[in-house]
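We now fix the convention by which a protein and its fold are recorded. These numbers are not coordinates but entries in a learned vocabulary of local backbone shapes. A record is reproduced here so that you can trace the correspondence yourselves:
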Amino acid sequence: MKKTLAVLCCVILALGCGLAAAEAAQKEDYTIVSVNGVFNIRGLTPDGYRLTDINKTDTTIGAWFNTEDETKPSFVLVISFLEEYANTERLNDLTEEEMKELVDDDPTLNEEFGIMETDYGTKVMILRSNQPEDDFACFVTVYKGYEVGLNLFPGTAGSGKLTDDQISLAMQFLSDLEFVPAEAGE
């Protein structure tokens, strides 16, 4: 009986170690973009995608997510500090009118899809190009004074148009992103 109990305990420990290793491996698949020591953005990269480039300037950070499948869209995460929103913690803190001001300067966008809320409770504006020859979608939020945009472009092969499934994939990717203060995320 003691042997059976010892074997059972070993099996349970082995399974527990296996689950912990799987969880650690999953966490390693997280993409982390550090934003000027203020906060980090992290989340699982969609299946088949990888972070291919991060470009930082004095005012903007761009992170490109691509796939080898040329029919699938590419993602570009663009993060820029906006002085007028320096005291704004999240997009949720803005009125609908103030949200509209974020994108009013860009005549190529319209608010076809409106506003969604991520799994973490962050409001995101979903915008589409109104130029038929240049289809793209843009998802915009504000966090700690930074405008965070996820731009979605159609793949280079195929129709050159975004599908509802591709937009849903981008919405899920964005919904899963976690914004973590730098001191907590390091």
The radius of gyration is 20 Å. The chain is about 30% helix and 40% strand. The chain has one domain: 30-185. Residues 118 and 175 are 4 Å apart (CA to CA).
